[in-house]
Amino acid sequence: MTTRTFLVHGLLAGLLAGVAAFVVAYTVGEPQVDRAIALESAGATADHHHEDDVTTSGAASHSHSHDDAAISRTTQSTLGLATGTLAIGIVLGGLTGLLSAVGLGRLGSLRPAASTALVALLGAVSFSVVPFLKYPATPPAVGSGETIDSRTALWFGFVAVSVLGVLAAVAVARRAAHRWSGVPGIVAGAAAYVVVVAVAALFFPEVDELGGFPASVLWDFRISSLLTLLAMWAVIGAVLTVLVDRTWRRQEAAAAQRAFAATL
């Protein structure tokens, strides 16, 4: 199996994952965004009540301004959301395919399908789940616009540490497997990753700009964001694993037929 095969399979898996993520985000995520925008608009209207001479509800007034914006809220929640999830899905799927090709034969005696599934799992944990636990998603109206650059830099920094940590964990697990086969090697690798991200979590600063934002809305928003991430990675892992396994079995069958024909 060539690297190109893994890449093509990964891109296809990523495309389907982007569709799945869009469905989840639009179904369970967008209602939470609308609730957050309504709260933001209500607060903004209250602050500028005397300037805007507002006589109707702040949420309705701000909602109207969203509709009149260059990019309407409807476009953001449909075309914009779909474009974003498809782009991210394709990129993550392609990268997972390439890393699966690199990992083939380097993750013990795992067959291509199992090796690919493991790569996808490690990618989900290191790139999305663990960074989400440190810096979870925040809805509109949360956080200062003046700190968005620093908050984004912190998130990317922690993602980098997490990904490097999982690469180091794989290296530790491989070395440990030469001395202790089976479970001890896996435990050693997992422990190495936990140590790396735990130390990083202590050194990276906390971000607390929630103010008086309602806890229930924040919880629902973060749960929907996490579900979207999990849906994307689940589809990438499942589809890529199935495609790789099918291709590998076909190539094995073809090789067996050629070997049999050579004996005739």
Short key terms for the protein model shown above:
0% strand, mainly alpha, 264 residues, 8 helices, 2 domains, flat
Brief rundown of the structure:
With 264 residues, this protein is an all-alpha fold.
Layout of secondary structure:
Elements: H1 3-47, H2 49-52, H3 58-68, H4 73-103, H5 112-134, H6 148-179, H7 183-203, H8 215-263
Broad shape: flat
What Rg is obtained from the alpha carbons, in whole angstroms?
23 Å
Assign a percent range to the helix content.
over 70%
Q: How does the major sheet shape up?
A: none
Total beta strand runs: 0
Low-confidence stretches: 50-68
Q: What string gives the helices and strands in order?
A: HHHHHHHH
**Overall pLDDT confidence:** 84
Number of separate structural domains: 2
Strand content: under 5%
Distance between the termini: 27 Å
Specify the structural class.
mainly alpha
DSSP helix count?
8
Protein name: CbtA family protein
Keywords: Membrane, Transmembrane, Transmembrane helix
InterPro entries: CbtA_put
What does this structure look like?
Keywords: Membrane, Transmembrane, Transmembrane helix. It comes from Nocardioides furvisabuli. The chain crosses the membrane at residues 81-102, 114-133, 153-173, 185-204, 224-244. This is CbtA family protein. There is one protein chain. By secondary structure, the chain is an all-alpha fold. The chain has two domains: 3-146 and 212-263, no CATH class; 148-206. 82% of the residues lie in helices and 0% in strands. The chain contains eight helices and no strands. α1 (3-47) runs antiparallel to α4 (73-103). The chain starts with a helix and ends with a helix. The model is unreliable at 50-68 (pLDDT under 50).
